[in-house]
Amino acid sequence: xxxxxxxxxxxxxxxxxxxxxxxxxxxxxxxxxxxxxxxxxxxxxxxxxxxxxxxxxxxxxxxxxxxxxxxxxxxxxxxxxxxxxxxx
Length: 88
Description:
This protein has helices at residues 3-19, 26-35, 42-49, 57-83. It has 4 helices and no strands. Helices cover 70% and strands 0% of the residues.
């Protein structure tokens, strides 16, 4: 699941809870979002958790999207490098 889909799902669940009279605070939404990520996002998760004040959900989402893009680019670059023949 992409970060965009993941964050959209979390925000949708929080909105539903709010509509049922159980609002989720912005901080709890951010913490819930970062706690559900796998280890490839460990560095950005640490950065988000240690920001003072804790970033808004939208800011955290943007940080995660940027990290996802960087990780995807690194995978693509590694694939390209593997396809380059070695010189004798």
